[in-house]
Amino acid sequence: MTEFMFALAIGILFGIGVFQLLRRDLIKAAIGFAILFSAINLFFVAAGAFEGEAPPYLSNVLAGRATSDPLVQALILTAIVVSFGSFSLVLGIVNIISKRYDTVDSNDVTNLKH
Amino acid sequence: MPLAFIAAAPFCLALLLTLPQTRAQLSKTAQTLLSSALMAGLFAWLVSSFPLVQAEGAVIQSLEWMPALGISLSFYLDGLSLLFGLIITGIGALIFFFAGYYFDDAAEYNRFMVWLAGFAGAMLALVLSGNLLMLFIAWELTSVTSFLLIGFKGAKEKSARAGAFKALFVTSGGALALIIGLVMLGAAAGQLIAPGTGGFVAELDVVLGLESLHEHVWFPLFSFLILLGCFTKSAQFPFHFWLPGAMSAPTPASAYLHSATMVKAGIYLVARLSPAMYKNELWTNALLSIGLLTMLVGAVFAIRQTDLKGLLAYATVSKLGAIMALLGLPGQAGLKAALVGIIAHALYKSALFMVAGTIDHVAHTRQISRLGGLRKELPALFWVTVISALSMAGMPFLMGFVAKETLLDALLHYSPWAELVMLVTLASAALTALAAYMLIGDVFLGRRRSELQIHLPPSPIYYGPALLAFCSLVMGFLLEPLVIPLLRLAVPKSFVLPLFAGFNEVFWMSMGVLVAGALLYRVRKPLIQRISLPVSGDAVFDELIRYIDWAGSALLSFQSGYVRYYLVWILGSVSLMLIASGILPAMTAGQTLFPQDLSVTATDLAKIFMLALAVAAAALTVVLREHVKAAIAYGVIGYAIGVIFLINHAPDVALVQLLVETMATVLVIIMLGQIRPGARLKVIRNLWDGRHDNHVGLLRDLGISIVIGLAVFVFSLIALQNRPERRSIAQWHLENTSLVNSEDAVGAIVADFRGTDTLLEIAVFTTAALGVLTLLASGRADGSSVKKAPGDSPEQAAQAGEAIQDATSLSTPFTRLVTNFVLPVAILIGIAQILYGGAGPGDGFTAGVTIGLAVSLWYVVLGYDEARRQLPWFRPAHFVRLGLVIGIVNALFPILLGKGFTGHVQFDKALGIYDLVSAFGLHITSSLIFEIAIAVTVMGGLGLIIEAIAYPQSRATVDEGLSAVGGKS
Fold this sequence. Notes:
Structural class of chain A: mainly alpha
Number of strands of chain B: 2
Number of strands of chain A: 0
Strand order of the largest sheet of chain B: 1-2
Largest sheet of chain B: 2 strands, antiparallel
Strand content of chain A: under 5%
Shape of chain B: elongated
Number of helices of chain B: 42
Oligomer: heterodimer
């Protein structure tokens, strides 16, 4: 049941992210970009090999409790920071565009056309 | 001494020359002396290894690299490699010296020498490599450095760019064939050594020892591909045309790459593989026929040239063809003649190129028709040219004479279809003699053109060519002590090499050629005008490029210029991939998509609630028109997901998520303050004013995103329902966490098990931060061209959603107090997270983000200038540098202990303080140091981003950041 709900949420978040990217508003597009990252991280945590009832600490393992999957967590941990880096790069680009073209409407940015 | 040092030394020289300190402190003369002394030292080193090669036959030194792929870093020095190594280092020393006086501008010289030294390293690696794949890598490196050298003057001259492109296009096209050929050869060798295992053998000594390789069924195919690579590299017909185009390189590069060394790489590889291949007639006949054709074509083209370097280039093509033909004689009968030819050619052609370069330097032209009568002004150059050109023509008893005698002798006695071959050879030789006479007669003798202005060069420019001419002069008399012992190492059969073999038929042919050349010289002008060619290689090449351009234009018509449409293509393809790889197979396997078991626990309910919250907040980011509100809604998504992580028993991730999400939201809001409210208002109006085309666009975007969202939903559902259970490597990580003295398995994976990955991740993060910095810096640099934005009316600003316009307006006594209080607490929390991260949530990442957040608060509350003044120690660029250096050193250090990259080291045990520190719950290990490195890097990266985004008007940060970029490169 939770898997279904996770998949549904991931799908909706992804759809919303893409929708934002497709719109002309560059600020909203940047937010959409970040929503895509969130959706992907959500997928990762849901896709762990197993679920548990305790954090993946050694003491929990020794006590015989089922812990959550540490590998996906390690992957997400670094992914969050790196996706923040890319997000700030996107914000930087939006900032530059707004300075150079005095607009945040992607239709007004025509110099990229060959 | 390891052979790897010989190949590495020129690369080190190149690195040394790029250092700003070198450029600032060493004069051009000092750099020249250093460079050529290094090459001379390598030459001496190779000479001193002669007895070793004599004793062992081949010196092989091997380092394991990628054993699973059959790639090793192995070095191989036998007679053939030694001969080429001596040419590369010996001629190199002279050319490096010459270049110091050829260039007037020190900065230009430095830039040139970096590439030239890099080329020398690549070329040495090529001839010293004992593994075919490593040889290929070096081969490509020579192509790349050659491209850079040919295009050296590309900023000013279109012909330089065109020549460089042509050379790269042809040689790397050939290299594509070569790599396929070499891989097939390696696979064939693997089949012969261990049939049925699919093994791959690229070690030179093993491949050359195979007796039956030439009978393998793949032989025709891989020998064709390898020869294609060698022919393109060594400018054989019909690929010869790139070499004259490459003459737009500065002359030292032409002299070195395009006559003495790189163009001989193809010849080297053919000679290198010859022991395993020569028994197959396909191989020898291809070499002989293409070589002879190239020899003739090159000689004919040479005399038609009006450019001095063009003449030399085609003469080189001709000679390369002759050597290729010699290698194609049955039973390796031409090997001795080929090697003698290589030595003689390297001596006279490099000298002639340097002469051409000097004339260009002196008279500012290389057009033969504009030159003449230079003998009086440039007597030294005249004599160098006389000796070298006569050596090229084959005058007794110069080194070129020996080469020509052995060439004619080998072709006459061992070639199939000897009559035809001799006809072609003698014709080419006569034309080469004519070209040599033209070099002397048309440039130095005759009347001096009155318009020619001459300024005399510094005399050291003559040293190199003079020494080479001297070698051409005396080498013939030193065959016994110098040349023959070297050749004996490279030629398996016994042979004799006299300077003068008596008045036999070969001698008379050789004399006849010289006389014929002299007779042709009398009638050269009408003769040259008669020669015309139906089609040139250049025209064919240009036609090919035109078709490629046309195909490119056709593709370009897909480029609408709207980024959205590109996204549709990209995401559409991704959706198709999802459907093909995940959804369709699962559907056909009868997967049920909808859950059968609808029972939920309390935790599940909590998760579902948080998911619903995230989705609702995401929907709000669309619906809320004002950007600030949308940004806050976005923050809610992040927090909701953070809580989900927490419920899923992932406290470390939850902590990072909550911190980073806060940071991201702050960043968006700060950035909104940088954008003119009017601009933001305009886009909101454009999108929401209910015009018809907006409705169409809305429906289109909705349709696309629903399709993509649906594909992602179905794919993730299938993926989540088919999880790998406990077989995953995750279990291994859990069980082995104790090995690295950690309590937290996630921390152990990040800082230890997957340490290399994390190191790269923080490097990526840093790169992104530097990207933000450079973006905003460049935006600032041409900011003057930006039109001044018209002022906004207050209502507009209010409607657009007021952002933080002036950061200092947030500065109240209360906020200042909070700010002052937060930073030390954040630092303490950060330190605690690093030290005790192994025992609970928190690690280097969270520590870095925590401190970064606290610092960004200072910037937001106090404003840039105030924050900088009060936090003088917060220098983001320094932190980034420091963190990366600690991380890399910490990762490299275990190698010294024999543990491999990012191995685990227990410093506390090694220092005998284990009991002491563990009383405080601490473990001083390499993981701890790595956590510190992560924290410092992330903190620095965040600092760079926040300073750049929040305060792009600050030049200081930007400059500091840029110098950090420069410092690392």
